Write a sequence for this structure.
């Protein structure tokens, strides 16, 4: 059954609540794409993004600028992917030129993961829009951990060409933990 059928099966009040909530979350995401609400933590949202877009054995570029970027590496390892870590000094934003070089050196990479705002260091990847341009030039899917940035600082999902964006209720949304949003 489709998502709409499952929601409508729960009753018209629930369907209206989900539609209203999803429409508003889409506004914050600045996207016209579908946004799913999952009953999980931010890490669960990151796992969902990886499990649904990365195959076991697939080589994936994981850009790390802190602990949560490294969490993506751990998730990739847990699901049998082959992470290629492009590590930047903690407290330093990703350099799109180094991302470009890593993709040129690994032309078989088709998926890139990055954390937009690294909570462990307080560093924002202010270069995210430029990194997205580089990934598009290499025909790569870009998965973004925006758990602590979305709803707090600009994340222009559609304008920047971000393919998959994960956020979590416990950070900038300032609501109870336990929900992840994935576009």
């Amino acid at each position: 059954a489709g998502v709409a059928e499952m929601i409508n099966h729960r009753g018209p009040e629930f369907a209206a609540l989900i539609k209203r909530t999803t429409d508003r979350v889409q506004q914050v995401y600045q996207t016209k794409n579908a946004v799913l609400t999952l009953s999980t933590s931010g890490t669960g949202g990151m796992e969902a993004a990886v499990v649904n877009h990365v195959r076991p054995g697939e080589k994936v570029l994981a850009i790390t600028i802190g602990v949560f970027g490294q969490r993506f590496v751990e998730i990739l390892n847990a699901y049998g992917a082959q992470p290629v870590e492009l590590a930047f000094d903690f407290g330093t934003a990703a350099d799109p030129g180094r991302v470009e070089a890593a993709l040129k050196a690994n032309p078989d990479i088709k998926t890139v993961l990055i954390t937009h705002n690294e909570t462990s260091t307080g560093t924002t990847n202010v270069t995210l829009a430029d990194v997205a341009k580089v990934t598009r030039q290499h025909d790569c899917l870009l998965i973004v951990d925006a758990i602590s940035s979305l709803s707090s600082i600009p994340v222009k999902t559609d304008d920047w060409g971000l393919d998959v964006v994960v956020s979590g209720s416990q950070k900038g949304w300032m609501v109870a933990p336990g929900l992840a949003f994935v576009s």
About this structure: The chain has a mean pLDDT of 93. The CA atoms of residues 130 and 181 lie 23 Å apart. The longest helix spans residues 12-29.
